[in-house]
Design a protein that fits this description.
165 residues; mainly alpha; Ferritin; 0% strand; binds hydroxy diiron-OXO moiety
Length: 165
């Protein structure tokens, strides 16, 4: 049986995943505004991935005969700071999301909702990846000061030029 408490927590998590998508899309807009198109691209893909995370819960709730409830999404910040600050924020955000997923798993355990426990294992795995990706970028960015970072970025951008350009 699909636990009511798990359904409630999953509906909340749909909102949280869409808020993650919103945050990363806002970070992408910031990077576009400062002409860092590679970072903007990465953040846009990350935003799309978050929507997929939300939809996985959406389908699962429906598959279990539950009722999806869409909730209000907060407005994300508009200004984000330097690249390293942004990826530090992303890492801290993913650590928070990992705690949310772990909490959801705890509820499924308490409720003896075994299918939900199995389903949530995918998210537990995914959060390891999410934290690792953000942490690696933070570490790389920290190896350079802001000026070096700019040169490195321009270097990568210029390396992508194709013959026709
Ligand atoms: Fe959905 O993993 Fe990031 O937030």
């Amino acid at each position: 049986m699909f636990s009511e408490a798990v359904q409630e927590a999953m509906n909340e998590q749909i909102k949280n995943e869409i808020y993650s998508a919103y945050i990363y899309l806002s970070m992408s807009a910031h990077f576009e505004a400062v002409n860092l198109s590679g970072f903007a691209h990465w953040m846009r893909l990350q935003s799309e991935e978050e929507l997929e995370h939300a939809m996985k819960f959406f389908h699962y709730i429906n598959d279990r005969g539950g009722r999806v409830e869409l909730r209000a999404i907060d407005q994300p910040p508009v200004e984000w700071g330097t690249p390293v600050e942004i990826f530090e924020t992303a890492l801290a955000h993913e650590q928070k999301v990992s705690a949310m997923i772990n909490n959801l798993y705890e509820i499924a355990l308490k409720e003896k909702d075994y299918p939900s426990q199995v389903m949530l294992l995918w998210y537990i795995d995914e959060q390891v990846e999410e934290e690792k990706n953000a942490a690696e970028i933070v570490e790389t960015l920290k190896m350079f000061d802001e000026r070096d970072t700019a040169v490195l970025l321009l270097d990568r951008q210029l390396a992508e030029r194709s013959e026709e350009e």
